[in-house]
Design brief:
The strands form 5 sheets. Strands 3, 4, 11, 12, 13, 14, 15, 16 and 17 form a 9-stranded mixed beta sheet that branches. A two-stranded antiparallel ribbon has the order 1-2. The protein has a two-stranded parallel sheet with strand order 5-10. The two termini are 27 Å apart. With 350 residues, the protein is an alpha+beta fold. It has 4 helices and 17 strands.
């Protein structure tokens, strides 16, 4: 994802407008592994044993594994040759040298932190040495814990739990260590004029629709999403990101905003299905900073909450619309994988 880190000034509050996954590159480091696909993630599927989880905003039910089991394959996009938004090339890391446990004296990664991060915006950490972050803990208002468990440190800097990336520093990411994001997947049933569910002609299963945004930076359709602000509950991030990116709640009149808020609250208080929780193989990742996310599905089963609201793209999106869930629809990064899990959970067409 070639994306500058932007902040919105709204009621004196600055919001980081980054998306979850990186720009898909098709050209990777020569000689590393020809089979690497920089536009696809290696994410594990969920099992079908469900248990409830409660937050102060939304009720979630997830699979028996609270976090998704790590993939056997090494991260790929995190090793793509050209770092996003720059001319910086990573030090080539072959598959058999990704894990930190592999001794590799010749490893000489490039150091890079984007100028937008070095300007010390409120969403970014200072350089190591000028402050002492508490890693593997909630550090003041910043959550530095990882879904991957406890991560190691070297020379005062955190080490990517999935291994080497060929680049040190923070790149485009603001935080040392995990950078937490959230993906709200909002769905409804596709219905006919009489309100009856429409079934697919081949699979015979009902068709789900989800709210999709067309990204301005790469022109691909995607799930709305963004970064978790310091001190913010993930449940609030999910609600805020959907409101801002799909309904453009920051630009509507106060009278309309009240209606949006009421309907959004209704949907996000309904049981949500936690689709994914864990490390994201993102081209912005470095040896010392990486993306992690929570993707949650909120389903408007009756079609009387957000389904009735007019969709309007926020400033991170070029377009927004309801899209049929179907395996043939091309989506940004690993979002198709998330939607496949949603379709299976809802017993819908895929």
């Amino acid at each position: 994802m070639v994306r500058l880190l932007l902040r919105r000034d709204w009621i004196g509050r600055i919001h980081l407008a980054l998306t979850l996954f990186g720009l898909p590159y098709t050209v990777c480091t020569p000689g590393v592994r020809s089979a690497i696909s920089c536009s696809s993630s290696h994410l594990s599927r969920t099992s079908q044993t469900i248990r409830p989880i409660s937050t102060n905003i939304c009720n979630l039910y997830v699979t028996s594994a609270h976090t998704m089991p790590p993939s056997a394959a090494p991260h790929a996009k995190s090793r793509c040759s050209l770092y996003p938004g720059s001319k910086i090339k990573r030090f080539p890391v072959p598959d058999d040298k990704v894990e930190w446990s592999q001794n590799w004296p010749q490893y000489n990664p490039v150091s890079h932190t984007d100028p937008s991060v070095l300007k010390k915006p409120v969403w970014a950490d200072p350089d190591i040495g000028s402050f002492s972050p508490q890693f593997n803990a909630v550090d003041g208002t910043v959550d530095r814990t990882s879904f991957e468990g406890s991560y190691k440190q070297e020379k005062g800097k955190p080490l990517n739990p999935r291994g080497r990336t060929g680049l040190t520093g923070r790149g485009l990411l603001g935080r040392w260590g995990p950078n937490h994001a959230a993906d709200p997947i909002v769905t409804r049933w596709k219905v006919d004029a009489k309100g009856a569910k429409i079934h697919h002609s081949v699979s015979k299963r009902p068709i789900l629709q989800f709210v999709s945004i067309k990204r301005k930076d790469c022109g691909e359709w995607a799930i709305p999403g963004g970064m978790v602000d310091a001190g913010e509950q993930v449940s609030l991030t999910l609600q805020r990101e959907f409101s801002e990116e799909a309904l453009n709640s920051l630009a509507v009149l106060p009278s309309e905003r009240a209606n949006i808020h009421e309907r959004i609250n209704k949907l996000f208080k309904s049981p949500g299905f936690q689709v994914f929780k864990g490390y994201v193989d993102d081209p912005r990742n470095t040896d010392n900073a990486w993306m992690e996310t929570v993707a949650v599905n909120f389903h408007d089963d009756s079609g009387n909450s957000v389904s009735e609201l007019p969709l309007q793209a926020g400033d991170d999106a070029g377009q927004v619309k309801w899209v049929d869930l179907d395996s043939s629809f091309q989506l940004y990064a690993s979002h198709s994988h998330f939607l496949e899990l949603v379709a299976k959970e809802r017993k819908a067409h895929w």
